[in-house]
Each structure stands twice: as C-alpha cells, then as structure tokens.
Amino acid sequence: MTLDVVILAAGQGTRMRSATPKVLHPVAGKPMVRHVIDTAMGLGADRLHVVIGHGAERVRERLAGCPLRFVVQAEQKGTGHAVAQALDGLGDGKVLVLYGDVPLIRHDTLSALLDAVDERHMALLTVTLADPTGYGRIKRNARGEAAAIVEHKDASEAERAITECNTGIMAMTADQLRRWLPRLSSDNAQGEYYLTDVIAMAAEEGTAIATAQPASATEVEGVNNRLQLARLERAHQLAEAERLMTGGVTLADPARLDVRGRLRCGQDVEIDVGCVFEGEVELAEGVRVGPYSIIRDSRIGPGCVIEAHSLLDGAILDGECQVGPFARLRPGTHLARQAKVGNFVETKNARIGEGSKINHLSYVGDARLGRDVNVGAGTITCNYDGANKHHTEIGDAAFIGSNTALVAPVRVGERATIGAGSTISRDVEAGALGVARGRQITKADWPRPRKQPKSEPKE
Ligand code: UD1
Ligand code: CA
C-alpha cells in the first residue's frame, strides 16, 4: 500500500509570542516541522502534504526544496477540517496524520502504528499522562477497545478522570478517511470539526481501532510555548548525549552538549563542557575537544586536540593536529598531520602542510603552506586588495619571522627565511633571506625628554 503523510501546521501558536510561525522554531537547530518531514520521509512516504495557514508564506519559503505538497487551510476550523483539506490529493493506500509542532516522534513508533492499518483496522497513538488536562480522552468499551475520543472541553467529570489521552497521531486508509471526514460536525464546545470524532465513526461501523503507545512521552509532546520548546530541546540533546556515550564517547557533562546536525564519533573521543556541533561533523578516534568549542561541518582526524574556545567551520584536519585555544578555522582550512594552529589564529581557504606551525596571533587566508613551515606571531597574509583575493604560497621548511605582512600574490620558497617585521610583496627564492623593514638607527647617549618641574601650589 502507498503511504500519504498529512502534517498539520496551520495553527497560529499564539503562546509562542513570536513573529515566526510556531513550526519554524528550531529544535536542535532545525525547524520543528523539518524534524517531522524527515521522519515521514524515513518511513518511505509516497507523498507528504503539509497543511499551512498562519504564516503560510513563511513556512512555504522555509521549506522550499522539500518534496512537499502544500495545502492551504485558510480558516482554522479544527483538526478534522485541516485533514479534509488534503483529501483530494491522497492516494489509495494508508494515511498517517502528524503534527508540525510535535517534532520528536520516532520512526519505530510510527512504523508500528502503520503496520496495524488495513481495510478493517485503523490505528491510534495514545499516551497515559499524570495530568491529562486539555487533552482528548480515550473512551474504551466493555471489551477494553477504544471506541471514542472526547475532548477535554466536551468531557464530563467522569470522563475527565480518564488518564489515557489522544496524542493526535493516527493512521488509517484513505478510503476510511473519505468515508468519515465528510460526516464530521462542528456541534461541540469549540465549534470545530474534530478529527478525533472519526474514532467513534470507526467503532460504529466495525472498523477496529488498534492503539499503541510511544516509548517515551517526549515523543508525542507538542510545543505551545517557549518553555515547552526548551524542554524538548533538552530532552533531545540528552538522548543525543546518551547515544554518543553508548558509542564510546566521554562527555564531561551530558547536560552541557548541543548537537545541531549529525555528529559521528570514533572511540575514545572526549568532549568537554559547553561544546556545540553543527551540520555534519566527524570526530575520529581519540579526538579531544576542549570546553566551549564550536565545530561546524568539519572532519577531525584521529588524535587531534582542539583546545578551549575554538571555532572550526568547514575544516578538515588529517590527524594529530593541535588547534587553539581561541583558534578560528574558517571554510576551506585543511590541516595536514601534526599541523598546529594556536591561539588567536584565523585561517581561511588555507592548506597547512604536515608538521607546520602557526602558533599565535596570525591570519592565514588563501594560502598554501608546505611541511614544517614555522609562521611567527603576528603574521598576516594580505590576501585582499579591496577588490580581489590573492594567493600566498610558502614552501617546505620556510621560516616566517614574527609580524610579517605577506602581500599576495606572493611566494616564499622552500627553506627561505623572512626577517621579523617584514612586508613581503615580492617573491623570495628557496633558501634565501628576505627582509623588508626600516633599518634600525642607534644614537649613543640619547638625552631623554624631561618634564618641566611644577611650580609650588599657592596657599
Ligand atoms: C488535539 C486533539 C486532542 C489531543 C491533542 C494532543 C482534536 C480535536 N483534538 O487537541 O484530542 O489530545 O491535540 O495535543 O484533534 N491545526 C490545524 N488546523 C486547525 C486546527 C489545528 O492545522 O484548524 C493543527 C495545529 O496547528 C496543531 C494541531 O493541529 O498543530 C493540533 O491542534 P490544536 O488546536 O492544538 O488541538 P488540541 O486542542 O491541542
Ligand atoms: Ca495542542
């Protein structure tokens, strides 16, 4: 059977108090609704329908490029009305209803739910909550089968005592939906077309309602305000931390880790507190990351050490490299084995050869350094002339004295030496010494200027 997934995302989200539509607020750096879309794609959905309303244009824009069918629900007349808007575009197989503001629902939970669906069965995900206030309650018949959902606002005192709640997530066949949705009425406390009323219709016609529960309640938790958003964020990050530790990573504190993307780690990786990983990051075995470092879209080879407060973005480190503290590696940085980039050094689009060192206070951009190069403190590649970027080439074992300005395009040959404080604007051949600075003058017995003595203050 084919699978259509309908994701409801038309609600306003007033309690977020935000100009940004609720479903675009991020969890782990990714809009909530993207989590749901990705999970749905993982289930092998043939079509994804996203029902939008409030902030429709923003949502559409943000999700451009995803293979989605947007369905506009101009007026929010309830969850049943929302699903009905997608009815025309559904196939003939199974339909799964998800929510753009319930981001952490897991693949396995949904896949089990879908397995229970056929012409004679629909499936409903329920959760038992200590405080069920506000939720739809699951009413079961004498045989213990789910037979109806009653919304909190429509429920009697006795029904409100029920703690088994509707998560909202359900699955059925498209045929069943086509039979049931046109029959919904808005004759209830909220004057809305409730999707939940299909449960009673199913029970009446003899379609069995299979129920399942999620492994954990956070999976089905929705976000209505920023407190709930932060709670889900932490729950998600803790799960990520546990996954990493189970895989052989030492975390100084699992509560102080943020992964916003995909972090893959080899064995015996150590991550200190306060680190943030964004995009696709790979840390090979034995990598150590010091506190408060940020690593984005980078590949760190075995045995590298990233010291505290470093920012790596789009960098590749071959192995046993040392970086930081306070280093900034920008996109296109490639450190060969045992290269070293120390404190207050910025690199960009730079290849640093094996064993080369840029230990302090430097900018190396649009450059290629051979192996065993030593770059002294305060060295700058002047790569930009105000209009264009130019390249700097430094040969193996060259020695660049401190406070050197390399005015690109320029080449420094192998084993060449640059005197400290030089401004190098012409190529220096292999093995040569290049010095380009004012010659020092020394004046013997120089009388230092002296202050005039102050006159006595008057009484
Ligand atoms: C709904 C369920 C309730 C369940 C609860 C779980 C109904 C009638 N009730 O209640 O049984 O316990 O979720 O959180 O379904 N939406 C639209 N268009 C609309 C209305 C809603 O897209 O016209 C979307 C909202 O953006 C939201 C979701 O559907 O993501 C749920 O709507 P909401 O109004 O929050 O339903 P609840 O009252 O919480
Ligand atoms: Ca809700």
Describe it.
The structure is a single chain. The chain is α/β, with parallel strands linked by helices and 459 residues long. A hairpin with a 5-residue loop joins β8 (137-140) and β9 (146-150). The strands form 5 sheets. It has an 8-stranded parallel barrel. A 7-stranded mixed beta sheet has the order 5-4-1-6-10-7-11, sandwiched between helices. It starts with a strand and ends in a 25-residue tail after the last strand. The chain folds into 2 domains: 3-220, Alpha-Beta Complex (Spore Coat Polysaccharide Biosynthesis Protein SpsA, Chain A); 226-434, Hexapeptide repeat proteins (UDP N-Acetylglucosamine Acyltransferase, domain 1), CATH 2.160.10.10. It is built from 8 helices and 35 strands. Uridine-diphosphate-N-acetylglucosamine is lined by residues 8-11, 51, 73, 76-79, 81-82, 99-101, 135-136, 149, 151, 165-168, 194-196, 222.
Mean pLDDT: 97
CATH superfamily of the largest domain: Spore Coat Polysaccharide Biosynthesis Protein SpsA, Chain A
Shape: elongated
Decide which structural class fits the backbone: alpha/beta
Query: Which CATH first-tier class of the largest domain would you pick?
Result: Alpha Beta
The main β sheet shows up as:
8 strands, parallel, barrel
Low-confidence stretches: none
Q: Biggest sheet, strands in spatial order?
A: 15-17-20-23-25-24-21-18
Kindly report how far apart the N and C termini lie.
Answer: 105 Å
